Amino acid sequence: MNFEGKVALITGGTAGIGEATVRRVASLGARTVLVGRDENDGRRIESELLGDGAEAVFLKADLSRPDEVRGIVSATVKIYGRLDYAFNNAGISGQDGLIADQTETNFDEVFSVNIKGLFIALQQEIRQMFQQGWGGSIVNMASVGGLLATPGASIYVASKHAVIGLTKSAAIEYGPHGIRVNAVSPAAIRTDMLRQVFGNDAAFDELADIHPIRRIGSAEDVADAVAWLFSEHSSYYTGQSLVLDGGLTAQRPFMRHERTLAHKTTEEKSQKG
């Protein structure tokens, strides 16, 4: 794959899957805009990429603030003149808890980033690609939680179901204009965000055991998938959720194991609190 001459925009680009994707597409020659709230990490990544000879710019923005989201694409175009690829990766997990115990505040916080922020970014990206005349590839961050459910994560799960719905709708509306829209739906990926959800690294071993491939994923696994979805190698692929789960959802015992782990983790966190 070669992305020379292309421009890629990646939200949530200063850590985890976002950072790995920034580095992957930049290494393939794309002029890359990484967006995030953490200016220190953003500037560090920008500096490292520039030092490696890549073209990259960091933009500070909070995806929970609609006005900041609306400025991302226009800033990208002002810097690089166009937009070819976008990865709407920014997201939060929210607070664990059974539905009856959840708060409206947690619901609003999760949906403000995972859905509203993504929705506004998606609008701006589509408008720019449409204006350019033909084509483009957009990838939205979903999750296996957008296909199934996990006890204690109802709000997060609902947000990821919504991401997949937006993805399908955008794909069928703008496919005739050459704009492809897909989602990636990872299972457990070794990131700081997953560590925060489960509390410690020990849970990673238990998570690995419920995946048929006997490991959890890496951020680079997802980055490679996003790069493929950007590329012409996936030119007939749109309106889909690419599941990256090490076989997790292919097995019937999945729900039983996942339920046990989820309840155990919720109990541990309650005891700590």
Q: How would you sum up the major sheet? A: 7 strands, parallel
Tell me the radius of gyration: 18 Å
* Low-confidence runs: 254-260, 262-273
Q: Helicity, in percent?
A: 40-55%
Overall form:
globular
Proportion of β residues? 5-15%
Q: Average pLDDT, to the nearest integer?
A: 90
Q: List the total number of helices.
A: 10
Strand order of the largest sheet: 3-2-1-4-5-6-7
Q: Please tally the β strands and state the result.
A: 7
Estimated structural class: alpha/beta
Query: Alpha-carbon distance between the termini?
Result: 48 Å
Element order: H for helix, E for strand:
EHEHEHHEHEHEHHHEH
Q: Brief overview, please?
A:
This protein has 273 residues and is an alpha/beta fold. Helix content is 49%, strand content 14%.
Q: What can you tell me about this protein's structure?
A:
The protein is an alpha/beta fold. About 50% of the residues lie in helices and about 15% in strands. The chain contains ten helices and seven strands. The protein has helices at about 15-25, 40-50, 65-70, 70-80, 105-130, 155-175, 190-200, 200-210, 220-230, 255-270; strands at about 5-10, 30-35, 55-60, 85-90, 135-140, 180-185, 240-245. The chain has a seven-stranded parallel beta sheet, with helices on both faces. Strand 4 (about 85-90), helix 5 and strand 5 (about 135-140) form a beta-alpha-beta unit. It is globular, with a radius of gyration of 18 Å. The chain starts with 6 loop residues before the first strand and ends with a helix.
